[in-house]
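Possible regression after last week's pipeline update?

I re-ran a chain I had predicted before the update to compare outputs. Posting the input and the new output here so someone can diff against the archived version. Not blocking, just want to make sure nothing changed silently.
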Amino acid sequence: MEGLNVSHEQLLAALRCNFNHEKFRNHQLEAIQATLSGKDSLLILPTGGGKSMTFQLPALAKGNCFTVVVGPLMALAKDQVDACLDLGIGARVWNSDTSEDVRKGILSELVSDEPELRLLYTTPESLRNPSLRGYLKEAYEAGTLLSFAIDEAHCVSEWGHEFRPAYLELSTLKTDFPKTPIAALTASCTSAVEASIVRQLRMQEPLLIKGGFNRPNIQYKVEYKELIGGGSEDEVVEHLVQFIQARQGRCGIIYARLRATCDWLCSALSASDIDVGVYHAGKDGQKRRQVQRDWCEGGLDIVVATIAFGMGIDRADVRWVVHWDVATSLEGYYQESGRAGRDGQPCESVVYVSADDLDTITQLEKANRAGTASEVTSFACQPGCKRKKILSYFGQKRGPCNIGSGPP
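New output (post-update):
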């Protein structure tokens, strides 16, 4: 699609009309203007930095066009569509759960001269659908396909070679839609992952827009399991129970690597009269959706989950995030801990670590991710400010330590 001439005043008017915001946050306007000018972009902003606005607003600022938003999770897509519909924004989701009647309606919208659809949320797997692909090509030829937004773009690098091969096929977007700009968005990535995203998506001289990585409201802490009751599992659980009880009524997420660990930990916490839900792919879809809904709406404050939970979910008052199992990479840790404190208020990130845990992530390390486990080990075990270690890892050499902010 040719670049669109939309003035700053028009964009501000669209922001106020559709989202009730008076001004853009840092880097939002730059990213929006890149898309409207037909330029590829890679946007790296921390969780809560307003990335969604950068792909939602362009199609609203210029009528008769739409953006395709590609994300990793079906539940996340539905949540974002519901949020758009609440604002009166024409949005739909196309995934494996979408009924045939709804699909027909979406396809009709894609080739309409005056589509009400502004945002189509889908997954890499769904983009393989021949009907959807064909209608998108028609929209491209008609000039109504504005852009592709690849949300959680680090998944292109981390998942494409492993259990989500459809991510590798996103490279064909530039083959089928060569003039349509791609906006790739993520909360964190190193320079190597940046290069991987650009290469995998075949982006053409993308504009790199990068915010700072410091989250000053998050207090980072590592707890060594061996120092808690000699490493006894029961003692470590009791330590976690006391941590939660001291923060009664405050929202939190507990991440564990294995589904079985999530179930066991949920049972152990429930036995201590803590109201907690559990979320992972092994649970029935309806139960997962209910837990997510209860948590998002405030009816449930604590969830034990595998790492996908919380991705893109807009609950701003998460006061703490606990990693029962140490993350397998610092990118992953930054992403997951960053789901706390989106409202900017004080919050905590606590990581439980043992020698066995560190051995495990070394064994899990993939060849194309060599060195990630040693970086995590360095973060967990070497003395010094944890915040500065995170900032240094992402190439931000200077930043406040701010370790004395106290618990929220």
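Follow-up from reviewer: compared with the archived run. The chain has 16 helices and 13 strands. Marking as no regression found.
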